[in-house]
Amino acid sequence: MQASQSQHSPILRTLSGETMTPPPLWMMRQAGRYLPEYRALRAEAGSFLDLCYTPSLATEVTLQPIRQFGFDAAILFSDILVVPHALGQDLWFVEGEGPRLKPVATTKDLAALREDLDPEKVGAVLETVSRVRAALPRETALLGFCGAPWTVATYMVAGRGTPDQAPALDLAARDPVLFRAIIDRLVAQSTRYLVSQLQAGADAVQIFDSWAGALISDEALYRRWCLEPIARIVDGVRAEVPGARIIGFPKGSGPFYPLFAGESGVDAVGLDQGLGLDQARAVQAIRPVQGNLSPEVLLSGGTALDQAIDLILEALGGRPHIFNLGHGILPQTPIPHVERLVKRVRGGLG
Ligand code: CP3
Fold first, then answer.
1. Segment 103-146, tens digit of pLDDT
2. Catalytic center residues
3. Domain range for 225
Protein backbone atom coordinates (compact mmCIF):
# COMPACT_ATOMS: atom_id res chain seq x y z
CA MET A 1 0.00 0.00 0.00
CA GLN A 2 1.25 3.48 -0.87
CA ALA A 3 1.17 6.14 1.82
CA SER A 4 -0.86 8.41 -0.44
CA GLN A 5 -3.50 5.73 -0.81
CA SER A 6 -3.91 5.35 2.91
CA GLN A 7 -4.49 9.10 3.18
CA HIS A 8 -7.17 9.13 0.53
CA SER A 9 -9.13 6.09 1.63
CA PRO A 10 -11.84 6.72 4.25
CA ILE A 11 -11.83 3.01 5.09
CA LEU A 12 -8.08 2.92 5.78
CA ARG A 13 -8.28 6.14 7.77
CA THR A 14 -11.04 4.63 9.90
CA LEU A 15 -8.99 1.48 10.41
CA SER A 16 -6.21 3.75 11.69
CA GLY A 17 -8.58 5.11 14.32
CA GLU A 18 -9.79 8.30 12.64
CA THR A 19 -13.46 9.27 12.89
CA MET A 20 -14.92 10.06 9.46
CA THR A 21 -18.27 11.86 9.13
CA PRO A 22 -20.21 10.44 7.38
CA PRO A 23 -18.69 7.00 7.97
CA PRO A 24 -17.32 5.03 5.01
CA LEU A 25 -19.60 2.33 3.66
CA TRP A 26 -19.50 -1.08 1.99
CA MET A 27 -21.69 -4.20 2.19
CA MET A 28 -20.80 -7.81 2.83
CA ARG A 29 -21.70 -9.89 -0.27
CA GLN A 30 -21.97 -6.66 -2.23
CA ALA A 31 -20.97 -8.56 -5.38
CA GLY A 32 -23.70 -11.13 -5.75
CA ARG A 33 -27.07 -12.32 -6.81
CA TYR A 34 -29.11 -9.17 -6.04
CA LEU A 35 -27.30 -7.56 -9.02
CA PRO A 36 -28.69 -8.49 -12.48
CA GLU A 37 -25.25 -7.98 -14.04
CA TYR A 38 -23.78 -10.48 -11.54
CA ARG A 39 -26.40 -13.06 -12.49
CA ALA A 40 -25.57 -12.53 -16.17
CA LEU A 41 -21.81 -13.06 -15.69
CA ARG A 42 -22.43 -15.97 -13.33
CA ALA A 43 -24.50 -17.67 -16.08
CA GLU A 44 -21.69 -17.03 -18.56
CA ALA A 45 -19.05 -18.52 -16.23
CA GLY A 46 -21.04 -21.73 -15.71
CA SER A 47 -20.21 -22.53 -12.12
CA PHE A 48 -19.58 -20.32 -9.10
CA LEU A 49 -16.09 -21.78 -8.67
CA ASP A 50 -15.23 -21.06 -12.33
CA LEU A 51 -16.22 -17.49 -11.64
CA CYS A 52 -13.91 -17.40 -8.58
CA TYR A 53 -10.91 -18.82 -10.48
CA THR A 54 -11.23 -16.82 -13.73
CA PRO A 55 -9.42 -13.51 -13.06
CA SER A 56 -11.11 -11.53 -15.85
CA LEU A 57 -14.60 -12.52 -14.64
CA ALA A 58 -13.84 -12.29 -10.91
CA THR A 59 -12.36 -8.81 -11.48
CA GLU A 60 -15.43 -7.66 -13.35
CA VAL A 61 -17.78 -9.00 -10.66
CA THR A 62 -15.73 -7.33 -7.88
CA LEU A 63 -15.98 -3.98 -9.67
CA GLN A 64 -19.73 -4.13 -10.47
CA PRO A 65 -21.00 -2.81 -7.11
CA ILE A 66 -18.29 -0.13 -7.01
CA ARG A 67 -19.38 1.27 -10.37
CA GLN A 68 -23.03 1.13 -9.43
CA PHE A 69 -22.96 2.43 -5.85
CA GLY A 70 -19.51 3.96 -5.30
CA PHE A 71 -18.85 2.00 -2.10
CA ASP A 72 -15.69 2.94 -0.17
CA ALA A 73 -14.34 -0.61 -0.37
CA ALA A 74 -14.32 -3.37 -2.95
CA ILE A 75 -14.06 -6.90 -1.58
CA LEU A 76 -12.27 -9.52 -3.62
CA PHE A 77 -14.77 -11.85 -5.28
CA SER A 78 -13.91 -15.33 -4.07
CA ASP A 79 -15.02 -17.64 -1.26
CA ILE A 80 -13.71 -18.72 2.12
CA LEU A 81 -13.84 -22.34 0.93
CA VAL A 82 -11.13 -21.68 -1.65
CA VAL A 83 -8.65 -22.46 1.17
CA PRO A 84 -9.77 -26.08 1.79
CA HIS A 85 -10.17 -26.46 -1.99
CA ALA A 86 -6.56 -25.33 -2.49
CA LEU A 87 -5.53 -27.80 0.24
CA GLY A 88 -6.89 -30.49 -2.06
CA GLN A 89 -10.29 -31.11 -0.47
CA ASP A 90 -13.02 -31.79 -3.05
CA LEU A 91 -15.47 -28.88 -3.19
CA TRP A 92 -18.57 -28.23 -5.24
CA PHE A 93 -21.65 -26.01 -4.96
CA VAL A 94 -25.16 -27.40 -5.28
CA GLU A 95 -27.45 -24.89 -6.96
CA GLY A 96 -29.89 -23.40 -4.46
CA GLU A 97 -28.37 -25.32 -1.52
CA GLY A 98 -24.76 -24.34 -0.95
CA PRO A 99 -21.29 -25.86 -0.61
CA ARG A 100 -20.45 -29.54 -0.43
CA LEU A 101 -17.02 -30.96 0.50
CA LYS A 102 -15.67 -34.45 0.97
CA PRO A 103 -15.63 -34.48 4.80
CA VAL A 104 -12.40 -34.62 6.79
CA ALA A 105 -13.32 -37.02 9.60
CA THR A 106 -10.10 -38.90 10.39
CA THR A 107 -6.35 -38.36 10.70
CA LYS A 108 -6.02 -40.19 7.38
CA ASP A 109 -8.36 -37.73 5.67
CA LEU A 110 -6.26 -34.83 6.93
CA ALA A 111 -3.02 -36.53 5.89
CA ALA A 112 -4.41 -36.86 2.35
CA LEU A 113 -4.62 -33.05 2.05
CA ARG A 114 -1.72 -30.84 1.00
CA GLU A 115 0.46 -29.07 3.59
CA ASP A 116 0.38 -25.87 1.56
CA LEU A 117 -2.04 -24.25 -0.86
CA ASP A 118 -2.11 -25.25 -4.52
CA PRO A 119 -0.20 -22.39 -6.20
CA GLU A 120 -2.34 -22.59 -9.31
CA LYS A 121 -5.59 -21.91 -7.45
CA VAL A 122 -4.05 -19.21 -5.27
CA GLY A 123 -2.35 -17.70 -8.33
CA ALA A 124 -5.72 -17.12 -10.00
CA VAL A 125 -7.01 -15.33 -6.88
CA LEU A 126 -3.88 -13.16 -6.60
CA GLU A 127 -4.12 -12.25 -10.28
CA THR A 128 -7.66 -11.02 -9.55
CA VAL A 129 -6.40 -8.97 -6.58
CA SER A 130 -3.81 -7.16 -8.66
CA ARG A 131 -6.19 -6.56 -11.57
CA VAL A 132 -8.85 -5.13 -9.26
CA ARG A 133 -6.38 -2.86 -7.48
CA ALA A 134 -5.17 -1.50 -10.80
CA ALA A 135 -8.76 -0.75 -11.90
CA LEU A 136 -10.04 0.87 -8.69
CA PRO A 137 -10.08 4.57 -7.93
CA ARG A 138 -7.33 5.39 -5.45
CA GLU A 139 -9.77 6.29 -2.65
CA THR A 140 -11.52 2.92 -2.86
CA ALA A 141 -9.91 0.35 -0.56
CA LEU A 142 -9.51 -3.22 -1.78
CA LEU A 143 -10.26 -5.82 0.88
CA GLY A 144 -8.88 -9.32 0.69
CA PHE A 145 -10.22 -11.97 3.04
CA CYS A 146 -10.18 -15.48 4.38
CA GLY A 147 -12.45 -17.52 6.60
CA ALA A 148 -11.39 -17.94 10.22
CA PRO A 149 -10.04 -21.41 11.03
CA TRP A 150 -13.08 -22.34 13.15
CA THR A 151 -15.64 -21.44 10.48
CA VAL A 152 -13.68 -23.07 7.65
CA ALA A 153 -13.18 -26.19 9.79
CA THR A 154 -16.96 -26.47 10.37
CA TYR A 155 -17.38 -26.92 6.60
CA MET A 156 -14.33 -29.17 6.21
CA VAL A 157 -15.54 -31.54 8.92
CA ALA A 158 -19.28 -31.61 8.14
CA GLY A 159 -18.82 -31.46 4.36
CA ARG A 160 -21.54 -28.81 4.19
CA GLY A 161 -23.17 -25.98 6.11
CA THR A 162 -24.93 -27.10 9.27
CA PRO A 163 -27.46 -25.23 11.43
CA ASP A 164 -25.58 -25.80 14.72
CA GLN A 165 -22.01 -26.74 13.68
CA ALA A 166 -22.51 -29.97 15.64
CA PRO A 167 -20.12 -32.15 13.60
CA ALA A 168 -17.17 -29.79 14.27
CA LEU A 169 -18.07 -29.25 17.94
CA ASP A 170 -18.34 -32.99 18.28
CA LEU A 171 -14.97 -33.71 16.63
CA ALA A 172 -13.28 -31.01 18.75
CA ALA A 173 -14.60 -32.74 21.87
CA ARG A 174 -14.01 -36.34 20.71
CA ASP A 175 -10.62 -35.99 19.01
CA PRO A 176 -9.02 -32.69 20.09
CA VAL A 177 -5.67 -33.72 18.64
CA LEU A 178 -7.07 -34.15 15.13
CA PHE A 179 -9.23 -31.03 15.41
CA ARG A 180 -6.22 -29.02 16.63
CA ALA A 181 -4.22 -30.29 13.65
CA ILE A 182 -6.94 -29.08 11.25
CA ILE A 183 -7.03 -25.66 12.95
CA ASP A 184 -3.22 -25.40 12.94
CA ARG A 185 -3.06 -26.20 9.22
CA LEU A 186 -5.66 -23.49 8.61
CA VAL A 187 -3.86 -20.93 10.79
CA ALA A 188 -0.59 -21.45 8.91
CA GLN A 189 -2.10 -21.47 5.42
CA SER A 190 -4.58 -18.65 6.02
CA THR A 191 -1.68 -16.50 7.27
CA ARG A 192 0.29 -17.12 4.08
CA TYR A 193 -2.82 -16.60 1.97
CA LEU A 194 -3.56 -13.19 3.55
CA VAL A 195 0.08 -12.13 3.28
CA SER A 196 0.06 -12.96 -0.42
CA GLN A 197 -3.18 -11.03 -0.96
CA LEU A 198 -1.67 -7.97 0.77
CA GLN A 199 1.46 -8.30 -1.33
CA ALA A 200 -0.63 -8.56 -4.52
CA GLY A 201 -2.38 -5.26 -3.77
CA ALA A 202 -5.08 -5.73 -1.12
CA ASP A 203 -5.16 -2.68 1.18
CA ALA A 204 -6.64 -4.52 4.15
CA VAL A 205 -8.06 -7.97 4.86
CA GLN A 206 -11.11 -9.29 6.69
CA ILE A 207 -11.25 -12.57 8.61
CA PHE A 208 -14.78 -14.07 8.55
CA ASP A 209 -15.70 -16.15 11.60
CA SER A 210 -19.34 -16.60 10.63
CA TRP A 211 -19.95 -19.40 13.14
CA ALA A 212 -18.18 -17.93 16.20
CA GLY A 213 -21.63 -17.87 17.82
CA ALA A 214 -21.49 -21.66 18.21
CA LEU A 215 -18.63 -21.23 20.72
CA ILE A 216 -20.07 -18.71 23.16
CA SER A 217 -21.50 -21.23 25.61
CA ASP A 218 -18.03 -21.53 27.16
CA GLU A 219 -15.22 -18.96 27.33
CA ALA A 220 -12.48 -21.60 27.11
CA LEU A 221 -14.04 -22.98 23.91
CA TYR A 222 -14.38 -19.47 22.47
CA ARG A 223 -10.75 -18.66 23.26
CA ARG A 224 -9.41 -21.95 21.94
CA TRP A 225 -11.19 -22.12 18.59
CA CYS A 226 -12.18 -18.52 17.72
CA LEU A 227 -10.00 -15.95 19.49
CA GLU A 228 -6.60 -17.65 19.62
CA PRO A 229 -6.46 -18.94 16.01
CA ILE A 230 -7.45 -15.48 14.72
CA ALA A 231 -4.89 -13.78 17.02
CA ARG A 232 -2.20 -16.11 15.66
CA ILE A 233 -3.13 -15.21 12.08
CA VAL A 234 -3.07 -11.48 12.94
CA ASP A 235 0.41 -11.81 14.51
CA GLY A 236 1.68 -13.97 11.66
CA VAL A 237 0.44 -11.58 8.97
CA ARG A 238 1.94 -8.54 10.72
CA ALA A 239 5.28 -10.35 11.10
CA GLU A 240 5.44 -10.47 7.27
CA VAL A 241 3.56 -7.26 6.46
CA PRO A 242 4.21 -4.75 9.26
CA GLY A 243 1.22 -2.51 9.86
CA ALA A 244 -1.16 -4.77 7.90
CA ARG A 245 -4.76 -3.60 8.39
CA ILE A 246 -7.06 -6.39 9.55
CA ILE A 247 -10.81 -6.52 10.25
CA GLY A 248 -12.14 -9.40 12.35
CA PHE A 249 -15.77 -10.50 12.01
CA PRO A 250 -16.56 -12.97 14.82
CA LYS A 251 -20.27 -13.17 14.01
CA GLY A 252 -22.54 -13.98 16.92
CA SER A 253 -19.90 -13.36 19.60
CA GLY A 254 -22.48 -11.60 21.81
CA PRO A 255 -21.01 -11.18 25.31
CA PHE A 256 -17.50 -12.05 24.03
CA TYR A 257 -17.25 -9.16 21.56
CA PRO A 258 -15.30 -6.94 24.02
CA LEU A 259 -12.88 -9.80 24.72
CA PHE A 260 -12.36 -10.27 20.98
CA ALA A 261 -11.85 -6.52 20.46
CA GLY A 262 -9.29 -6.35 23.25
CA GLU A 263 -7.27 -9.51 22.59
CA SER A 264 -7.43 -10.53 18.92
CA GLY A 265 -5.16 -7.72 17.71
CA VAL A 266 -7.47 -6.73 14.82
CA ASP A 267 -7.81 -3.08 13.79
CA ALA A 268 -11.61 -3.18 13.62
CA VAL A 269 -14.36 -5.53 14.71
CA GLY A 270 -17.32 -6.50 12.51
CA LEU A 271 -20.58 -6.58 14.46
CA ASP A 272 -23.63 -8.66 13.58
CA GLN A 273 -27.15 -7.22 13.80
CA GLY A 274 -27.88 -9.23 16.95
CA LEU A 275 -25.67 -6.92 18.97
CA GLY A 276 -27.57 -4.03 20.59
CA LEU A 277 -26.26 -0.53 19.94
CA ASP A 278 -25.27 -0.04 23.60
CA GLN A 279 -23.14 -3.16 23.39
CA ALA A 280 -21.81 -1.98 20.02
CA ARG A 281 -20.67 1.26 21.65
CA ALA A 282 -18.90 -0.71 24.37
CA VAL A 283 -16.94 -2.59 21.70
CA GLN A 284 -16.25 0.70 19.90
CA ALA A 285 -14.67 2.08 23.07
CA ILE A 286 -11.99 -0.60 22.51
CA ARG A 287 -11.63 -0.71 18.70
CA PRO A 288 -13.18 0.82 15.57
CA VAL A 289 -16.31 -1.12 14.60
CA GLN A 290 -17.99 -2.16 11.37
CA GLY A 291 -21.69 -2.89 10.95
CA ASN A 292 -24.39 -3.62 11.81
CA LEU A 293 -27.58 -3.00 9.81
CA SER A 294 -29.85 -6.02 9.56
CA PRO A 295 -29.96 -7.46 6.00
CA GLU A 296 -33.67 -8.19 6.61
CA VAL A 297 -34.34 -4.50 7.31
CA LEU A 298 -32.53 -3.59 4.07
CA LEU A 299 -34.72 -6.11 2.26
CA SER A 300 -37.89 -4.53 3.72
CA GLY A 301 -36.87 -0.94 2.93
CA GLY A 302 -39.11 2.05 3.61
CA THR A 303 -39.16 4.16 6.75
CA ALA A 304 -38.11 1.19 8.92
CA LEU A 305 -34.87 1.15 6.91
CA ASP A 306 -34.38 4.90 7.33
CA GLN A 307 -34.94 4.66 11.07
CA ALA A 308 -32.56 1.73 11.50
CA ILE A 309 -29.84 3.56 9.55
CA ASP A 310 -30.31 6.71 11.63
CA LEU A 311 -30.12 4.80 14.91
CA ILE A 312 -26.78 3.27 13.88
CA LEU A 313 -25.38 6.60 12.65
CA GLU A 314 -26.44 8.22 15.90
CA ALA A 315 -25.11 5.50 18.21
CA LEU A 316 -21.78 4.94 16.43
CA GLY A 317 -21.11 8.47 15.12
CA GLY A 318 -18.36 10.47 16.81
CA ARG A 319 -16.03 7.47 16.97
CA PRO A 320 -14.42 5.32 14.24
CA HIS A 321 -17.13 3.38 12.39
CA ILE A 322 -17.42 1.66 9.01
CA PHE A 323 -21.07 1.36 7.97
CA ASN A 324 -21.97 -2.17 6.84
CA LEU A 325 -24.59 -4.84 7.21
CA GLY A 326 -24.52 -7.29 10.11
CA HIS A 327 -24.22 -10.15 7.58
CA GLY A 328 -24.34 -10.56 3.77
CA ILE A 329 -26.97 -8.80 1.65
CA LEU A 330 -29.89 -11.09 0.81
CA PRO A 331 -30.23 -12.05 -2.88
CA GLN A 332 -33.85 -10.79 -3.08
CA THR A 333 -32.90 -7.24 -1.95
CA PRO A 334 -34.26 -4.58 -4.36
CA ILE A 335 -31.60 -2.30 -5.87
CA PRO A 336 -33.56 0.88 -4.91
CA HIS A 337 -33.18 -0.11 -1.24
CA VAL A 338 -29.40 -0.20 -1.63
CA GLU A 339 -29.51 3.19 -3.36
CA ARG A 340 -31.60 4.53 -0.49
CA LEU A 341 -29.08 3.19 2.04
CA VAL A 342 -26.11 4.78 0.29
CA LYS A 343 -27.87 8.13 -0.02
CA ARG A 344 -28.97 8.17 3.60
CA VAL A 345 -25.58 7.17 5.05
CA ARG A 346 -23.76 9.69 2.86
CA GLY A 347 -26.30 12.40 3.59
CA GLY A 348 -25.65 12.04 7.30
CA LEU A 349 -28.16 12.82 10.01
CA GLY A 350 -30.37 15.82 9.21
O1 CP3 B 1 -18.73 -10.34 0.00
C2 CP3 B 1 -18.44 -10.41 -1.21
O3 CP3 B 1 -19.09 -9.83 -2.10
C4 CP3 B 1 -17.18 -11.17 -1.59
C5 CP3 B 1 -17.30 -12.54 -1.93
C6 CP3 B 1 -17.69 -13.57 -0.87
C7 CP3 B 1 -18.52 -14.68 -1.17
N8 CP3 B 1 -18.55 -15.50 -0.08
C9 CP3 B 1 -19.18 -14.91 -2.45
C10 CP3 B 1 -20.23 -15.94 -2.56
C11 CP3 B 1 -17.28 -13.71 0.45
C12 CP3 B 1 -16.42 -12.78 1.30
C13 CP3 B 1 -17.82 -14.94 0.93
C14 CP3 B 1 -17.57 -15.45 2.30
C15 CP3 B 1 -18.20 -16.70 2.72
N16 CP3 B 1 -18.45 -17.83 1.97
C17 CP3 B 1 -18.58 -16.99 4.06
C18 CP3 B 1 -18.38 -16.06 5.23
C19 CP3 B 1 -19.39 -14.98 5.27
C20 CP3 B 1 -20.80 -15.42 5.49
O21 CP3 B 1 -21.60 -15.24 4.58
O22 CP3 B 1 -21.07 -15.96 6.58
C23 CP3 B 1 -19.11 -18.29 4.08
C24 CP3 B 1 -19.67 -18.99 5.29
C25 CP3 B 1 -19.00 -18.82 2.77
C26 CP3 B 1 -19.38 -20.18 2.30
C27 CP3 B 1 -20.44 -20.14 1.28
N28 CP3 B 1 -20.27 -19.67 -0.02
C29 CP3 B 1 -21.79 -20.54 1.43
C30 CP3 B 1 -22.39 -21.10 2.70
C31 CP3 B 1 -22.41 -20.33 0.20
C32 CP3 B 1 -23.82 -20.71 -0.17
C33 CP3 B 1 -24.81 -19.78 0.36
C34 CP3 B 1 -25.15 -18.75 -0.68
O35 CP3 B 1 -25.19 -17.57 -0.34
O36 CP3 B 1 -25.39 -19.17 -1.81
C37 CP3 B 1 -21.46 -19.74 -0.68
C38 CP3 B 1 -21.69 -19.31 -2.07
C39 CP3 B 1 -21.35 -17.89 -2.43
N40 CP3 B 1 -20.25 -17.21 -2.00
C41 CP3 B 1 -22.08 -17.04 -3.32
C42 CP3 B 1 -21.39 -15.83 -3.42
C43 CP3 B 1 -21.72 -14.63 -4.27
C44 CP3 B 1 -23.34 -17.44 -4.09
C45 CP3 B 1 -22.88 -18.20 -5.28
C46 CP3 B 1 -23.81 -18.15 -6.45
O47 CP3 B 1 -23.68 -17.23 -7.29
O48 CP3 B 1 -24.63 -19.06 -6.56
1. 999 999 999 999 999 999 999 999 999 999 999 999 999 999 99
2. 29, 33, 42, 79, 155
3. 5-207+218-345
